[in-house]
Amino acid sequence: MRNFLTIALPKGKLYEDSVDLLQEAGLCTEGLKEDSRKMVFTNEVEGLKYIICRPTDIPTFVEYGAADLGIVGKDTIVEQDKDLMELVDLRFGYCRFVVALPEVTAQGRDLSQFNHRRVATKFPYVAENFFRQRGMQVEVIKLHGNIELAPAVGLADMIVDIVSTGRTLRENQLVAIEDIFGATARLVANRVAYRLKHQKIQPLVDCVRSIVKDKEVRS
Questions:
Q1: Cα-based distances in Å from 118 to 49, 101, 142
Q2: Is the pTM of this model over 0.70?
Q3: Which of the residues in the chain have pLDDT under 70?
Q4: 29 and which of 9, 23, 102, 193 could share a cystine (Cβ 3.0–4.6 Å)?
């Protein structure tokens, strides 16, 4: 069987930049930008396979070896705490984790005044770690979407979420009162694949690292 290099690409906002980066690194990306519901793209000649999946599933595909490499946000990596090798900070897809409260509640107050409150989030691991490190006791409520709704209906006092422009917070009368950390897209690898396919993976990693560095210099 051909020894393919399999790369997991994230659907959504990181997809276009991910494909552009791999193309710039010299990989064939034919078909990846076509309007299609295909989830697997194989290039027999170059020994390449791409799998297209939800960003939150990429750490699992890579950890279990279904993909050798993957591109995924640092926010997902931290939240899932999978056994991955983080190879390159790709510097795109920036967002940040924040603690946000209703504007009327936040006025003139700091986060320490909200001990023993309820926090809604899609990222319970990040939230629990953050508040534990701050010495605060909170009840973390896991939701799968529409986090901004939780304070409006009395489900939670505050939220932990990722924001890029802050527009969604503003439109829901929420305000960020504490940054947790910033996150960008990362190139990650399965540990075994990195060792067994080192001759294929390392030149690609070096090339991607060089591209990212050149863009930083030019910007």
A1: 44, 11, 11
A2: yes
A3: 1-2
A4: 23
Angle at which helix 198-218 crosses helix 15-24, to 10 degrees, equals 110
Contacts of 190 (CB under 8 A, 6+ apart): 62, 63, 64, 65, 67, 68, 69, 84, 85
Superfamily name with CATH number, domain 95-180: Periplasmic binding protein-like II (3.40.190.10)
The fold adopted by the segment(s) 5-94+183-218 is D-Maltodextrin-Binding Protein; domain 2 (3.40.190)
CA separation for the pair 173, 105 (Å, rounded)? 10
